[in-house]
Design goal:
alpha+beta; BirA Bifunctional Protein, domain 2; 2 domains; 8-stranded mixed beta sheet; two-stranded antiparallel ribbon; binds adenosine-5'-[phenylalaninyl-phosphate]
Length: about 350
């Protein structure tokens, strides 16, 4: 009795060793465990058949059965660890990122996802500006009334405050920035001594009705260049160079006088509407022109707010409408597509 039981236990262990080598998944291992060690498993069956054996046989076979059970459990654990290791190695070789690659190249290589068109254009612009010696700055979305208005030469009672419909906080001292121009002041404070030049891309918020070219949340890229003896000619040359870099083709622009309290003189730079080729559509409000980049020579009061002496230094600033630039670039006929959250829309740009 005892020897036949021991033979059965040895045979069971040998069969288990073959089976465990063939198990390639955790589910297969769980199945093996139930088959060999479960209540209705092979080992329990052998032990149950001991009920008629002598107490001595039961003891010695029981001891061996425990040893075999322990070995099977250890092998199951080893096999599970090996399966986990294999899975980790597969992930490590297939799913990795080369952090030494340039940001834009990394983004393009991720096929399953893509960047939002505003991000694509923003990053392209950042590269252009970096190549022109500009720094890239950032600023908070929640601003103080000082940075958004007063420091930019828009005093308390000035009607220009009504030009931009503001989301105010209850304390009436904080607001969601209505433009990125606040970073002109923050940038001057940070840079301190001219010459310097920087751009600051980011969101702006206005409590206004939306239409094909207006959103309540949109993107701008502020730019500022401060030095000595800067003129309107520098500004115009700079803008032409910038636009030819951005569009990589000839685009028709026009410069007309524009009023902004933080510049003097101020200009509106419009681009011939690329959606309708200037014939008139809902994006350009039938005018054939799209306001893209207001700009001008920085007002002396703004320089003073930023701690710069206007007797010594001057410069220019501009506020590029990023969403509209994206619309012109990709011929998008309604700004509301951009923030619609419609994946079918954004997916079109995944490989851009
Ligand atoms: C400004 O916001 C000024 N801060 C720009 C500026 C900076 C002027 C520096 C002079 C010097 P404006 O409100 O026109 O100006 O907005 C600038 C650009 O942002 C517009 O030409 C347009 O392209 C974009 N923009 C403005 N409002 C919206 C909106 N509601 N939806 C989408 N784009 C908008």
């Amino acid at each position: 009795m005892e020897s036949s039981m021991k033979d059965r236990l040895q045979a069971l262990e040998k069969r288990f060793e073959i089976d465990v080598q063939e198990a390639e998944t955790e589910a297969a291992l769980a199945d093996l465990k139930a088959r060999y060690l479960g209540k209705k498993g092979v080992l329990s069956g052998i032990l149950r058949s001991l009920k008629d054996a002598t107490p001595e046989d039961r003891r010695s076979v029981g001891r061996l059965a425990n040893v075999v059970k322990g070995r099977i459990e250890t092998k199951l654990l080893d096999a599970r660890a090996a399966i986990e290791r294999t899975a980790i190695n597969v992930t490590l070789t297939s799913d990795w990122t080369d952090i030494t690659l340039r940001r834009s190249l990394r983004a393009v290589s991720v096929k399953e996802s893509g960047l939002h068109p505003v991000t694509i254009v923003q990053r392209e612009l950042e590269d252009i500006f970096l190549s022109m010696g500009f720094d890239i700055l950032d600023g908070p979305h929640i601003e103080t009334e000082w940075y958004n208005f007063t420091a930019l030469n828009v005093p308390q009672t000035h009607p220009a405050r009504d030009m931009q419909d503001t989301f105010w906080f209850k304390d009436m001292k904080h607001l969601l920035r209505t433009h990125t121009s606040c970073i002109q002041i923050r940038g001057m404070e940070q840079k301190k001594t001219p010459p310097f030049r920087f751009v600051a891309p980011g969101k702006a918020f206005r409590c206004e009705a939306t239409d094909a070219s207006h959103e309540a949340v949109f993107h701008q890229m502020e730019g500022m260049l401060i030095g000595k003896d800067i003129s309107v000619a520098h500004l115009i040359y700079f803008e032409k160079t910038l636009l030819s870099e951005i569009f990589n083709r000839d685009v028709e622009i026009r410069l007309r006088p524009g009023f902004f309290p933080f510049v003097e003189p101020g200009f509106e730079l419009d681009i011939n509407c690329l959606i309708c080729d200037g014939t008139g559509c809902s994006v350009c409000r039938q005018s054939g022109w799209v306001e893209l980049m207001p700009c001008g020579m920085t007002h002396p009061n703004v320089l003073i707010s930023g701690g710069i002496d206007p007797e010594v230094y001057n410069g220019f600033a501009f506020g590029l409408g990023l969403d509209r630039l994206v619309m012109m670039r990709y011929q998008i006929d309604d700004i509301r597509h951009l923030h619609s959250g419609n994946v079918d829309f954004t997916r079109q740009f995944a490989d851009c």
